[in-house]
Amino acid sequence: MLGSTLAGASGAGTIGIIGGSGFAASVLVVLTAPITLLIAAGTTITVGGLEAGCYFVDERITEEEDVHAILRQVAVTANADYFKLFDVSNEDAARTGTVSRVRIPEKDGDYQFYEVKNLYIVNGELLHRDRFFNTSLGNIAAALVAQP
Questions:
Q1: Which of 34, 43, 133, 141 is most exposed, with minimal Cβ within 10 Å?
Q2: How many C-beta atoms surround the C-beta of residue 105 within 10 A?
Q3: pLDDT tens for each residue of 37-76
Q4: Is residue 119 packed enough to be buried (19+ CB in 10 Å), middle (13-18) or exposed (0-12)?
């Protein structure tokens, strides 16, 4: 560029070409913007559809009795420092008003209690229903085997 500017007349021609290409690039951007937006919208719809499909494929255990049965099985072999089930029978719950809860440690060393009726399991992850985002309590593994 500097060499062509020193050449004199050709410098003016180079500046004109550069200026013209800037205008042409601007026109090209305006013309291709709708295509870019359509491709982005198509990608968003496709990814959203895949996520929605995966939502229905996840293994969900939401019935309180089923979750309770799994938590009883986990409590048999779990380390009480990390997971403890305080199981209350239906009769005791009706008589005293207490409910079954699990105790899970927090990062600061204190324990947090969660009522079993607010728990559910998705793909082996124990979750607590909250108002906005549900709290993940950790992964659990248990197998319910029917008695012969």
A1: 133
A2: 13
A3: 677 777 777 776 666 666 667 788 888 888 888 888 888 8
A4: buried
